[in-house]
Amino acid sequence: MARTTDVRPIIKLRSTGGSGYTYVTRKNRRNDPDRMVIRKYDPVLRRHVDFREER
Predict the structure, then answer these.
(1) How many CB atoms lie within 10 A of CB 47?
(2) Does Ribosomal protein show up as a keyword for this record (predicted)?
(3) Are 24 and 36 spatial neighbours (Cβ–Cβ below 8 Å)?
């Protein structure tokens, strides 16, 4: 019955700033079928940078 893993897989968001920092989150494949790009805080660089989805 638990088909939430099909619709909402776990993904890694890797920093584009070159620090190697990652966030782990879930996404809805129906709403976001392409790779996600989110602007989040990178504590290594101490500023906001784009984080891209990594598979």
Answers:
(1) 9
(2) yes
(3) no
Instruction: Map out the domains of the chain with their CATH numbers.
Output: 4-54 (2.20.28.120)
* DSSP 8-state assignment for residue 46: T
Contact 52, 40 (CB under 8 A): no
Rounded Cα–Cα distance for residues 50 and 15 (Å)? 6
Tell me the C-alpha distance between 41 and 11, whole Å: 17
Neighbours of 22 (CB within 10 A): 13
pLDDT, tens digit, for every residue of 9-40? Answer: 999 999 999 999 999 999 999 999 999 999 99
Spatial distance between the Cα atoms of 36 and 6, rounded to a whole number of angstroms: 17
